[in-house]
Amino acid sequence: MYSEEEIIAGCQMEKASFQEKLYQLYSRRMMAVCVRYTRSRFEAEDIFHEAFVKVFRNISAYNGGSFEGWVRRIFVNTAINHYHKNRKYQDQLDYSSVEESVPADDDIISTISGQELLALINQLPEGYRLIFNLYVVEGFNHREIAEMLNIAEGTSKSQLAKAKSHLKKMLQKLSISENAD
Fold first, then answer.
1. What is the pLDDT of residue 176?
2. b/e for 122-157, b at 16 or more Cβ within 10 A?
């Protein structure tokens, strides 16, 4: 069993066996990142492979700190780049009509699994899902998100509010249908 430092050093020397170990170490967690930013498994796999190539190509630039954080940043940036490249092909719908005032019901969240919650997040409209993931899951602030996506900081804030409102509605529908069973 090699340490993370030994695996990184082996990858920096472009040794395939160490690249395979790095892939095994991070593939599940990084695929989960990719899936959160896409609508399909196919898209997620594209981002996943592209990002791993970037990790191996740029591993010599890694200079300490959290290696997983460094890898995750490459995956998130690759997903954002994918979003920018493909945005012009996606249907742009106006979701501003989504009601903002939905009563909160925290009990709903405690009744569903993490997998069910991820499925609901994946049903969010593209822009909402992207900002929700960056803010809530990855921990970026609105200023950072605005810079990454070339949008106004206020747009990031409003998209997050709309995403939360949309999720609450979906959770309420889920709760109603589960209680009806």
1. 65
2. eebbbbbbbbbbbbeebebebeebbebbeeeeeebe
- pLDDT (0 to 100) of residue 27: 92
Do 111 and 169 reside in the same domain of the chain?
A: yes
Q: What pLDDT is stored for residue 170 in this prediction?
A: 83
Domain boundary among 59, 89, 119: 89
Tell me what pLDDT residue 19 has. Answer: 94
Residues of the chain with pLDDT under 50: 89-110
The verdict on 20 and 77 lying in the same domain is yes
pTM of the full structure: 0.64
Q: Which amino acid is it at 78? A: T
Question: Which string of b and e fits 83-100 if b means at least 16 CB within 10 Å?
Answer: beeeeeeeeeeebeeeee
Domain end among 89, 123, 156: 89
